[in-house]
Structures are given as structure tokens and as C-alpha cells.
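Researcher: I'd like a candidate sequence for this fold, 282 residues long. If you have to choose between options at a position, lean toward the conservative one.
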């Protein structure tokens, strides 16, 4: 893999392309009297979660997607949250449901995720959605993994036969992106907090996916010359999981933070909502 030319993988450009392709589809739905609708549930008042929800709502508005915001107090019980999700499942005008995570600690987050109807699981958080993704036929794979694959495809970066190292094994990021890379014929190593000799494993990678939630965690000395680095982390102060300048010096292509994976994740959520409206819109 040549590393003479460095490419900054511009997530805003990829997101814009996705949204451009959505506009005529949304217009066609409007002719049928259908407005794609995403319901977002926020439990409690975590400031960063509130910011994410607001960003998603604004993105919907700009594209002509209806956004319903359900705000629940931090004292909400698991049962009350599941009941709220059940009401949205029953609402035929709602095409996608997003439960903003993390939820307060006393709530059983997995039980809440499982309450989302599969046809409205546009964020890819249910175990059924995960299983479908692993088998390669999910309608709505988890949005950040799908965004990573969209960036690789947009920039025509080869995946087949390449060695991808994923750092992180969360059920909505590390594990599903590992499955998607495997389905795209990459050889995948999934690393985590118990992995030994992590730096040595990362040095073998043609593609590095950082998804650990630790600022500047991935060091430049870990990167094989010419590797492709995708930073799915977002930490306070607009800092990713990758030491950007140090990794840029070694990589052939890299996503910045911000303006890398993040905008494509939101665009993917909007795409899944439009997909669901086309499939299930009245």
C-alpha cells in the first residue's frame, strides 16, 4: 500500500454525498404523503447526550425528516422507558427509534434496547439487528460501523484481503464493525482491554479502527507505514482515540476528529430512517 500521498478522509464530504442521495427519495415519499420520522429518546440531562440529540434533530430538520424528541427524567425506571418505547413502536408515523446512550445506571439498557421493534431499530442496537449484521443482511447495521464502511467505500480504499485491527469490542461499534469488515473479506483482529501486546498487533494492520473511548490512545509508533486509520472515538475537547499528528505521519489515509467518522454516523442514521419510511411508510 503506497504511503507517498496522504489522504485526509473528509467525513463531511461523505456525509454530504449520502444526504444528496436522500433528498430525491424524501421528495418521492412526500408525494405519497409520507414524512420520514425519527423519534429520539433522551433519559436524564447528560450534557453531551443532549448535544448529540440536538445535532441529530437539526440534521433531520435540514433534510425534511420529522424529528420527535422524547425527554424523560433521570428518575425514569426501566419499565417506564420500555413503556415509552412501546408507544413509539405502535405509532405508525414513527419510522425509526433512537435511544440515546448511555442511559442512567439504574436502567437496564439492554432490556430497553431490546424493546425497540426490529423494523424501527435504525441505530442497530438490538441483538437481532446485531445477528443480522453478522450474517451480512441487516437492514440497519449500527450507524458508526456502517459509517466506517461508507468512508472506506467512498474513498475506494481496499478492504478485501487486508488485515484490519479493531481496537474495542462494544456491541454497537467494535463487534459489529469487525463483522462488517469480515463480511467484506478482510482478515480481522479484534482487540480490547485484556489484549496483550496491543501495539505489536496494531503494527501488523493495513486498516486500524480505533473505538476505545480514550483520548490520543493510539500512538504513531503503533502504525505500520501506509496503513489506513479510522478514528471512531470522540472525547471531550474534540479529541479522538488516535494521536492524530503522530499517526498522520505514518498513515496513508486517516480520519480527523471532528469532521471524520461523526458526520457520516449521523448521515447513516438519517439514511436508515428514510430506508424504514420507504419500507414501512403508510
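Model: Candidate sequence:
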Amino acid at each position: 500500500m503506497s504511503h507517498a500521498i496522504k489522504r485526509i478522509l473528509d467525513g463531511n464530504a461523505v456525509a454530504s454525498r449520502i444526504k444528496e442521495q436522500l433528498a430525491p427519495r424524501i421528495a418521492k415519499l412526500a408525494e405519497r404523503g409520507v414524512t420520514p420520522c425519527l423519534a429520539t429518546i433522551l433519559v436524564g440531562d447528560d450534557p453531551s447526550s443532549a448535544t448529540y440529540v440536538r445535532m441529530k434533530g437539526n440534521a433531520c430538520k435540514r433534510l425534511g425528516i420529522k424529528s420527535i424528541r422524547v425527554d424523560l427524567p433521570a428518575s425514569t425506571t426501566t419499565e417506564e422507558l420500555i413503556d415509552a418505547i412501546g408507544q413509539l413502536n405502535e405509532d405508525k408515523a414513527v419510522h425509526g427509534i433512537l435511544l440515546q446512550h448511555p442511559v442512567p445506571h439504574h436502567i437496564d439498557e439492554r432490556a430497553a434496547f431490546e424493546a425497540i421493534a426490529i423494523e424501527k431499530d435504525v441505530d442497530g442496537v438490538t441483538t437481532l439487528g446485531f445477528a443480522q449484521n453478522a450474517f451480512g443482511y441487516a437492514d440497519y447495521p449500527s450507524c458508526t460501523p456502517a459509517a466506517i464502511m461508507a468512508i472506506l467505500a467512498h474513498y475506494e480504499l481496499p478492504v478485501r484481503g487486508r488485515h484490519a485491527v479493531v481496537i474495542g469490542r462494544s456491541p454497537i461499534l467494535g463487534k459489529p464493525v469487525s463483522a462488517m469488515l469480515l463480511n467484506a473479506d478482510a482478515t480481522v483482529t479484534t482487540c480490547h482491554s485484556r489484549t496483550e501486546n496491543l501495539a505489536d498487533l496494531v503494527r501488523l494492520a493495513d486498516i486500524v479502527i480505533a473505538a476505545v473511548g480514550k483520548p490520543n490512545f493510539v500512538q504513531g509508533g503503533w502504525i505500520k507505514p501506509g496503513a489506513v486509520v479510522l478514528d471512531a472515538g470522540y472525547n471531550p475537547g474534540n479529541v479522538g482515540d488516535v494521536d492524530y499528528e503522530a499517526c498522520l505521519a505514518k498513515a496513508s489515509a486517516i480520519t480527523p476528529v471532528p469532521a471524520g467518522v461523526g458526520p457520516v454516523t449521523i448521515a447513516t442514521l438519517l439514511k436508515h430512517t428514510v430506508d424504514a419510511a420507504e419500507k414501512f411508510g403508510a
